[in-house]
Amino acid sequence: MTIQPIVVIGIGPDGSDLSREALEHIARAQLLAGGRRNLDCFLDWQGERLEIDADLPRVIARLKEFSGQGRCVVLASGDPLFFGIGRVLLENFPRESLMFLPHVSSVQIAFARLKMPWDDARVMSLHGRPMDLLRPALVEGRAKIALLTDAKNHPAAIARFLLDEGFGDTYQIWVGENLSSPAERCTLWSPGEIENERFSPLNVVVLIRTAKTLSSGHAPLLGLPDDLLTHRDGQITRWEVRLIALGLLELQPGNVLWDIGAGSGSLSIEAARLCPSLSAWAIEKNTEACRHIRENLGKLAIANVRVVHGEAPAALAELPAPAAVFIGGNGGRLTDILETAMDRLQAGGRLVMNCVALDSLTMAWNWFGERHLTPAVTSVQLARSRPLGSLSCLEPEKPIFILRVKRGDRFVTGPNVADRLQTGPHLE
Fold first, then answer.
1. Per DSSP, which regions of 202-255 are E strands?
2. 42-64: per-residue pLDDT in tens?
3. Which of 104, 131, 163 is the last residue of a domain?
4. Which of 7, 202, 328, 374 is the Cys-Cys partner for 25 at CB 3.0 to 4.6 Å?
5. 337 touches 330 (CB < 8 A)
6. DSSP 3-state of 100
7. Domain span at 88
8. What distance in Å separates the CA atoms of residue 25 and residue 100, rounded to the nearest whole number?
9. Within this chain, do residues 201 and 238 fall inside the same structural domain, yes or no?
């Protein structure tokens, strides 16, 4: 006896535009499975109905039991193999026991309404999945991102996520509701407009990038200009100082970098652009600064920097052990941060710290000295040309002290230790 395959048929919103082949399979079926909405498209059908709901093990068990006795048809919305029931069925039945007749997917219809090609789109499902899955596509600067939604991750929630992550000015939100039905509605929004809007549960969201990234041809390979990055109140590591600090960090492919007190994220962004296999973590307690970091990541299409909104050292607890640590700000918690960073730093790892205040430099110098670690300090004094009447002059900026420690470095033992601690740091 030949066992009939389970026929998985994709249907549209009302099931009215099916092929003759699909209709013949449904007419001959003895068990019809599908979501309630899909089953309601065939109210006159006679036979056993199996509603597909959240209890998928129950559904699979009944299909397995019945498939050896008679003909089964499973109804699915759109393309069953596109974020649909097809994947679950393939995990539970041999391929030769399944037959697929796809319909046009909701994403295909969405881009048809937009009159846009979609072979270059990033397609994702947020149905029953965390919203955080969207972040990498935003950071990469994808021009088109199609999203399947659910009751939690609805269009307004997606808009709020864009705003919170610093992409509110980067994308427009296109919402297609009840596509291919008499109640179809297609609308275009900015993230700030959509917060209080309500939409049909049957919707597809397409994010359309409005701002261009600077990743190709617009930004230098090394030494990002300060005015290219968004920052607050001039709180940015100047590009000349940034490059010195990067050299002292001695980064290698695959390293984990902590950028503590990241500010604009300039150092970790510069490092991530130079080394795509680097895993960088930008730790920043200020909400506005975190938004700036995310905006800069999106602007430059950087995918290997993660933003951690929190205060060090508590925010460091769950991060992977670093091979390199950069401290750009400490929020008055310097000794606690040093304790945590050096405790977690991998063998041979490097810690680099920028100091503007002599107090911070002295505190760090003494902290390391008490632990018999050898810091080296580099002094950097920048001066920039500016007009002076009809002439030009150099206007100096505050000096920066860059402290560096490599885990394993130690003072030479003996009275020289005390002498060096009393005289303060040696400037290179």
1. 203-209
2. 988 989 999 999 899 999 999 99
3. 104
4. 7
5. yes
6. strand
7. 6-104
8. 11
9. no
